[in-house]
């Protein structure tokens, strides 16, 4: 399964930034060892249901440790029997663009 998720703490630093809290969440994802990528809006992660959801929960937990309220946006592509889709989906679109 592929999951795209975004975590937003309700509190920020004195400049209004949330990058430290978001970095803590991204660190959890990267340390999980699951295939992942982070862009300006979401972090994408690939794996089996239980392992992906456990990583998302841990990421929420580290943000909740520094913020009294946490927002989570999550989108999942559940396609049993497929792996490597984090890059394969993009590659299929790129090939279609070349036609």
TrEMBL record:
GO terms for cellular component: cytosol. This is Thiamine-binding protein. Belongs to the UPF0045 family. SUPFAM superfamilies: MTH1187/YkoF-like. It holds the Pfam family Thiamine_BP. InterPro entries: MTH1187/YkoF-like (IPR029756), Thiamine_BP (IPR002767), UPF0045_domain (IPR051614). It comes from Nocardioides albidus. Residues 3-94 form the Thiamine-binding protein domain.
């Amino acid at each position: 399964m592929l999951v795209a998720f975004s975590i937003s703490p309700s509190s920020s630093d004195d400049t209004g930034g949330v990058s430290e809290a978001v970095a803590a969440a991204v660190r959890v994802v990267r340390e999980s060892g699951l295939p992942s990528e982070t862009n300006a809006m979401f972090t994408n992660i690939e794996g089996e249901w239980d392992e992906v959801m456990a990583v998302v929960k841990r990421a929420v937990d580290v943000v909740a440790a520094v913020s009294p309220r946490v927002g989570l946006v999550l989108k999942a592509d559940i396609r049993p029997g497929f792996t490597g889709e984090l890059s394969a989906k993009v590659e299929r679109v790129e090939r279609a663009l070349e036609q």
